[in-house]
Amino acid sequence: MAGFLYLRSAAAEAEWKQSSDEYLRKLVQQVNDNPNLLWKAKYNRFGVKNQSWGFDYTPNATAVQEVLDQLLAFFDSDAMKRHIQELVDFPDSSLPTHFDARLKWPHCPSIARIPNQGGCGSCYAVAAAGVASDRACIKSNGTYKASLSEEDILGCCAVCGNCYGGDPLKALVYWVNEGIVTGGRDGCRPYSFDLSCGVPCSPATFPGAEKNRICVRRCQDIYYQNKYDDDKHYASMAYSMYPRTMTVASDGSVRAQVPTIIGHLNKTSSTPMNIVQIRNILKKEIALFGPMTMAFPVSEEFLHYASGIFQPYPLEDLDKRIVYWHVVRLIGWGQAEDGSHYWTAINSFGEHWGDSGGNTPSVEQAIQREVTDDSSLTSLSNSCENRITNAMHDEHS
């Protein structure tokens, strides 16, 4: 009887896989057959359909009032007032049509680095560590070139998240409070999760990674430059650009508004900011201070992205195709031949995914949707809000 059940299960699994492959190949063909789209897809055998993964986790486990209180304090600081004034004083007319942080700061190799999160839903930690590395290098005029450790965030920041997802803003607050040690292959805390499970790895691999996720407050044996505590690098403040809320109750029943730069500018303006004005503030932030994180919903077709300016297609039933929420690192922007604007992003699926690991999501896709939960892996609605967060590096770190 047990053997019979096993065979039925295997047959059902094979039937599901065949059906999924046929569906996804058709989706790829739909994209490539549309002459009006500005991107191309290529079938990726590691792509998956939206489904219930059955994870045993608490979506709002990262809820904490103290983080919100600290963000409010950061926003009331003189440093933030100077930061906002610098954005306001930068003339819109000085913004170039195309911008690439890799070209402006070529002495900072971390900006061009394409990470691979492997079999853990750690995009929030990977993107936050990337932003921290980029901004530390930029602030130091290229004298600090180390890659900061996503492993340190993932293992030791209790309120940031886990292998089922998390919040990059909380990871950047952790950078301020606790500091982050060096990462990379030869740093204090290298990334330890399996990279061989796919490009990208399926969420089905995340539970196994979560079981092995631990906090280790010591450097790997080959790293002898510093002890763990001496290897920490700190920021002076963390902040959000685009209006969003944050869960402050573990059951998800209480959400609070996070102070944001665009929210502040909207309140102090005689008229609400339009999408062009919002876009320009985000561009100024990148051009003046460096890359920042962005969260967006990954639809099934995105996993088959090959090149071009991505936008979800088809728009019908988009929410039914959302596989998970994902966080990437924005490093620039541009303008397509038809005049449409786009962001240039560094993904965390490794160098063999997409256009050498990067992608260019359309600007409207990037800033018009909203996040409904603090987890990267959550169902979403059409009334969600995007998370664009970053941190300012301390001059004395």
Automatic annotation (TrEMBL):
Peptidase C1A papain C-terminal domain boundaries: 95-371
One GO process term, biological-process aspect: proteolysis
UniProt keyword annotation of Cell inner membrane present: no
Gene3D superfamilies: Cysteine proteinases
Keywords tagged on the record: Hydrolase, Protease, Thiol protease
GO MF annotations in UniProt: cysteine-type peptidase activity
Pfam families, per the entry: Peptidase_C1
InterPro entries registered for this protein in UniProt: Papain-like_cys_pep_sf, Pept_cys_AS, Peptidase_C1A, Peptidase_C1A_C
SMART domains on file: Pept_C1
PANTHER family in the record: CYSTEINE PROTEASE FAMILY C1-RELATED (PTHR12411)
Family to which the UniProt record says this protein belongs: Belongs to the peptidase C1 family.
Protein name: Cathepsin B
Species per Swiss-Prot/TrEMBL record: Trichostrongylus colubriformis
Phylogenetic placement of the source organism: Eukaryota, Metazoa, Ecdysozoa, Nematoda, Chromadorea
